[in-house]
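This section describes the prediction task in plain terms. A model, or a person checking by hand, is given the sequence of a single protein chain and must write out its three-dimensional structure as a string of tokens. No templates, partner chains or ligands are provided. The sample shown here is typical of the held-out split.
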Amino acid sequence: QSRYSSISATGAVPARRNEARTVRAQRGQSSGINAEYGMADLKKLIIKENVKTLSKSSPEERFWKKFKFAAAIKEFGAVSHLSFSQEAPYYYTVTSGTKVNVYSVKTNAVHQSISRFKKTAYSGCIRRDGKLVVAGSEDNSVQVFEVGTRSILRQLTGHVRPCHVTKFDVGDTHLLSAGDDKTLRCWDLPTGEEVLCMTGHDDYIRSAATVAMCPDIWFSGSYDHTVKMWDKRTGECTLTVDHGAPVESVVVLPSGGIAISSGSNKIKVWDVHRSGGLLTTLANHQKTITCLALDSSNTRLLSASLDHQVKMYDLSTYKVTHSIKYSAPVLAIGTTGNNSRLVAGCNDGLVQIREQPSPAPCPTKRSLAAILPGSSAFFARGKNIPPAKTDSVSGQEVKRKKLSQYDLHLKRFQYREAFDHVIKSRHSPDIVVSVLQELFRRDAMKRVLSGRNEDTLQPVLVFLVSHVTNPRYCSVLCDVAHVLADLYSPILGMSPAIDKLFEKLNKRLQFEIKVQERYMKLQGAMECFFTATGLS
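The expected answer:
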């Protein structure tokens, strides 16, 4: 080691003298230039930027990425159901424990809290105009509440087991309810009388759906693995399809021609007009899908699952366009009537709300006319508008850009100090390679790398071993490796640490060459295969 240090130090003297002469010559030239034209600012070192692949995000993905986190509200129990009104002010209900809370879109907070349940409440559903709420209960009853006063308008009894499903009919004058007694019941809202009781399922009913274009058609999904279509006029089942697993949720497109069911980790799409023919099966979740929902435009499908994921599908292609991961299993999902909020209810009781940024209001003639000539607002017009690139700004000091430490060293022609700074300060490989490129451009690489002892040469070799096979840096680092080999090959064997690093560098390069040779052979074989396939 002592021999290695003495030889490297002796070899450093001529190199340092040459470097000092070059620095004095360059300083003399720069002083003459600065005296003639004035002191100019040094152009900062351009950092090597890697080519980034263009994001192939679809319009649907960009639409969902606009939803940003707005609020997270803790309920007292797991959020089992969400329901959304379709008219302003776009209230929505959250069913959790023994409460049904009505939330406001404007404040993202509870607007009314309905807690008149003796036992657990289920399926709190708000009417499309946001004035009434219906909910089932563990005590077998169905109750209708007024949102404004929270008073009970109707209490319907007829189920003999807990009622898990409640909905308003399309005409808003009838109610639909279903539950663990395997029956689907229709109620007349003005009178509170039971109109119809439909039987046919062999297990608990956990979901139901109405059809916007066909008020007399209902759909139901049960734990007996079936989805049934009912005709309210006759009270009979007109279509049955087998999902193959307990059905957790059912949604129907407004036309009534497409029904979508979820059970286990699969979503199945059924063509009602073709006697319930299966159109496609979607299996994008890892665990049970707990909820399906359509957005307010009825062009997008949302699915929530126990795997903490919410996935969005384009109904024209039935492909996943976006997904969001939550902190807990998601039991309910949906969007508000104006598609401004995305609300998810989780198993841990959190209601997580995401919202789209509202567009800035355009100035109207009335608002512009309100600014009186001669007023302070009249003279302050446009003060917050940033100047364009073509504008000339006066009265402002031009702030000089602060140079980094390696830029300062390069400005003073201290090439060795600039290189040692980026190597020892653990800068990103992009910055180190950019400095190396600048040193090559200034023809200073040999002077920077020569005359080093064991302590100053080790960081250079460690960096080469770590990044020489990276395709983004290999062209520059291979040139650096050639310079090091030319400078230090005569004195190899004098330091075990340096010899070991050179051996690592050699093995790394040999391994990379073998890998590239295999890739080339594979590429040639594939080209022959594709050529033969094209000819046949």
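For orientation: The two ends are 67 Å apart (CA to CA).
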